[in-house]
Batch of 2 targets.
Target 1
Amino acid sequence: MKTDISIYKTAFENQVNALNGSLNEAFKEKKKNALEDFEKTGLPSSKVESWKYSNLAAWTKGNFTPVEDIPVSNPKIQSPVLGMKKVNLIVLSNGNINQEASKIIDQNLILSSVQEELKSSEGKAFIEKYIDSIENHETEPLHLLNTAFLKDALFLKIKAGKIIEHPVVIVHHFDAIPENGIVQNRSIIDVGENAQVKFAEYFESKNAATFLYNDLQEIFVNASARVEWYRLENENCPGIHVQSQKVKQEKNSYFKSWSFIKDVQKLRNNTYVQLTGPFAETNIYGLSFQNGKSHADNHILVDHAVEDCQSNQLFKGTYNDNSTAVFNGKVLVRKDAQRTNAFQSNKNLLLSEKATINSKPELEIYADDVKCSHGATTGQMNEDQLFYLQARGIEKEKAKAILNQAFLSEVLDYISIPELKNHLKDYFNQCFETA
């Protein structure tokens, strides 16, 4: 379905006019250029190779509209959060920073916003340093749309050499978005040299209307910094959710991404990691458990731009009923990236005849001295193992749940926060008890 561009042009003009000349000129120019580029692409359809199995233009019928000035509510966040008693809490209400509901307890974590940074004399330098400065290897229409309608954004800075003792929890809350609205969020995170921080994020929606959530995170991991990112995406995710994470790593840095996906409606996860300094390491783990008509699409690109870096990808999923899933993991090793180690694995179980997984692991290598591997397997549950459990008096459905649980549980071992790990293990086990 073709995108009606006039809807976006009108919404853009309304936004700019409402700002009444207060928009930073460099910022305005960047937004305008993004809109012009978006006019050339429109929303991605199945004709775009990377969106072949997730036809966003058809999902939105080409006529969803960016919405602004949605009231910021004050959701009650239950403690402990994700099983953790002491956290730095950041609440994003309908895509906006909710200062009242957020609570920072670690002084080395600086919570700000793009608008606050633009007020300084270095506003233009801020834009050049952070906004869209992480290179994309393909035009991503949702990123263009996010920049075109960007008005404010979360800006987090972790001071160099500091360890953030308590995890940073980001809560995405939705409750007043109109039908067919597009809500966008942008987060920019700068982790200083030798700093360490762990993030966890989840989503909760009380919104009755169908809407599109276009969330873009830009994460700068400076030299020798360590970042871990945990994400829980389940039934509480919005109807159509596009989550994009762009990461740039400097020398000796470490980045780990971990995601748990269960019964989302329509989800697209984009992860782009650039390794730009030697001896950087990135690890990306995913665990997916889908039932009903849910659809989950994981699209990953790890770019080895320099020598002596390492990356690992491990995604495991089980798919039941009429659920569909996509895994597209690519490793790019550039000519100068000698002595690269890159490993990728995608393993899937189909639990019904109608469930579908499209798996596409890719290696693109231009260097000579590398160790790289990739592999993908998709199959059904092992009948011998199932018979073995049933022969010991375990009912068939219970036996299936045990085998399913055993297959996926490996990914849980990569969680390094004990409280979060216990919480997610309990949640994980409940999923199978009620499946």
Target 2
Amino acid sequence: MQWSTIYNVFVRDFRKQKKRITLTIVALCWGTISIMLLLGFGEGLSYQMSVNGKGMGEGISVLWPGQTSLPFKGMGKGRPIRFVPEDVDYLKSKIPELKEVGGEYHRWGTSLKYGDKIVSEHVNGISPNYKEMRNHIPAIGGRMINELDMQYKRRVVFLGNKLAERLFSDKPSNDELWFQESPEAKRIQQEAIGKQLLINGIPFTVVGVQIHKMQMNSYSGMDADKASIPATTFEAIFGDPYLDNIIYMPKEVSQMKDVEKRVYEVLGQKYKFDPKDERALGIWDVAENQRETDNVMMGIKIFLGIIGGLTLLIAAVGVANIMYVSIKERTREIGIKMAVGARKSYILTQFLLEAILITFTGGFLGMFISIAITEGFKSIDIQSEVLAFMGRPTISWDIGLVVVAILGIMGIMAGLFPAMKAASVSPVESLRYE
């Protein structure tokens, strides 16, 4: 059987049933658009949630001191645990699986003054490796806190972008400023560098402003609203002997649970508490949080795919109806072919391929329109934080392959049973058919 023969038969049937086949192709096109846009929305949302989840850091855990709840070696429960700066090096020396460790100080309600502007914000003392662990990425022209700042206890500050806006912009606060990467946003990021501001009346030099980033998680407010200074400077100025928390990053994310267990053992040995005492320390596994989000998004994508698949299923029923009608109208033709020697497999294959051809004609038309719609979405400027948080519909190769697979299954299922019926027609009876 030649493809040209199938094509010619298809064109002949199309002319005879133009309206019916056109409506079926439109239904298939509509069903394909539905499933592709739903899957594209799920893909875009999943990608954006992944980006938002990494805003606070990727593959890290946040460690807080707690209070013992179990007696240990003659000591009672209820003893508070306090982290000191030496714990950072202690953890790194005892747990070789750790890639990065850093301590952090917090101080809320700190006065920051530039010119005649005064704001009360959150200041934290951090180490240089927060650039990698917590995604403290400076805008062009600036830098993060470095080792020399730590060593010489320099009075330098790294500003969150929205905090910099409140200090260095004469215009009212505007979220759109950062989404559009407007000239005003770039001016603030550039001009703030090198300027001096007062933190609790002490002069600090701005060395960098954070780039805009989406952040879904936080444990002490958003990074965009914080001022970060070297941890050693913070300790010297505020006289705080205890770290508020420690951030650590294993070399491999898969080692997170093992490292967590080792943290309890190592700090339990130092601070004399039972390693099984979960209240002695608080650990937030941010990577686990990300994995849970990924699982939820996968569930949403499957759910949206099922809804779109059901829409496409209705269109496939239309294809099956077209094929049954076609068989009825071509019964004598089938009988003549079988009478002159055509085998049942020939008849079955012919009708099966016709059904698949109708299905893929509508399907590919729908795929083309879906891609055009999603590309159109990408050219629209998003000026809303909520919409930016949701992401844009994205059609990936995976979605295309899934839809092609579904179309193939639908085409085979829609054509198989009519084709089997056509192949089972008796040549004698079919020649009598009027």
